[in-house]
Task: structure prediction
Amino acid sequence: STVRELPRRRGRSRADSIDRGRRVTLAGGVSDVAENTALAELLGAIADRRIRRKVQKLLQLGEEAVRALGELDAALYVREDGEAQIQIVADAVLSHFRRLLEMLGVLRNEDPPSEPQAAARPSSPRILAVRTMTDDQKWKSLVREIDTLQYGLSSELREFDRRFSDALSHDRPEQALVDLNDATTALMDGVFAVMATVYECFLGHAEP
Result:
């Protein structure tokens, strides 16, 4: 059917997103701490335990969100009536992303961004500049970036929810699936940006 063919035709963009972020997820994966030198370097660079726990939790939620968003095709094809349960599928693949977005909102409210002139982002060369900053300064730099990312991702999700609900209410499953596929790809890119930003703010670079 048209609905069943859509994810496969559009799958290249999803694969490209996964490939673009694979190095970040591998570098930021909290499940392989002992074997992951990039994550070990990041966490080792943070002396403040409170900040370190927040960073680790943020990366964990990011990786979980990426995995869930990447399971759209599998969720649709695991059973014959997958497209008939598109609302259930959408809730499942977006659940972890919504958790990440909630955490971004909490962090943003806990540590309101300071005025730009009071805590400007470090200048080039970035790595050397970051090394001279305290954990608190790095965290404030990250919160400032989170403020922008959270706003953009929230707007993207709200727009998807509106389009998706409209398509389903007008009995247009094909359009609903197109919207879901496009949203998961775009949101995955957003999650990669969040994870990369964590490394940039604390190490001065996004990848090992």
Residues 1-12, 20-31, 116-125 have pLDDT under 50 and may be disordered. Residues 135-169 form the longest helix (35 residues). The chain is about 75% helix and 0% strand. The CA atoms of residues 62 and 194 lie 8 Å apart.
